[in-house]
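Holo model, heme C. Inputs:
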Amino acid sequence: MKLRLSLAVLVAVSLTGCGSENNSATVAGSVVETVPEVVAVEAPAEVNPEVLAADLKSLGCYACHAIETKRVGPSYRAVAEKYRDQSDAVPALVAKVINGGGGVWGPIPMVTHPHLKSEQLTPLIERILQLPAE
Ligand code: HEC
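Output:
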């Protein structure tokens, strides 16, 4: 039964295949090949939470933060949740880490990190904001 069905499909497909003689478009006597347009879509970078956590630990951020749990400061998952769709948030957050400040997550302000450079923090903050929601 199954074999007969697939045979029928095969016959139908080959029939329609032979029936259409016009496989390539002809414009003014020349054959125009239609090349499918390839659109380069950049896949979103996968953020590995373990690698990110190690990098944050190496800069001392883990004294007050963790990825999953709120400590002195908010969890990085919560930070990602809040700013994920705000592309202009990265420079502001970088500045906040360097200069310190509070008033967003609670009464405790973040300490200053004057020894850290914005070139160093920018990719880090970008990775924090790419943490997937759970
Ligand atoms: C001594 C504790 C402490 C350390 C160390 C610390 N933070 Fe924070 N962080 C906080 C607190 C507290 C807040 C919440 C501030 C607020 O409510 O505005 C915060 C907030 C943040 C925010 C969100 C800011 C906002 O305005 O929403 C980011 C991003 C952040 N920290 C990143 C970092 C990074 C990256 C490091 C390491 C370089 C770091 N923090 C180190 C305490 C700390």
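The longest strand covers residues 25-27. The helical segments are 2-19, 49-58, 76-83, 89-99, 118-129.
Archived with the compound record.
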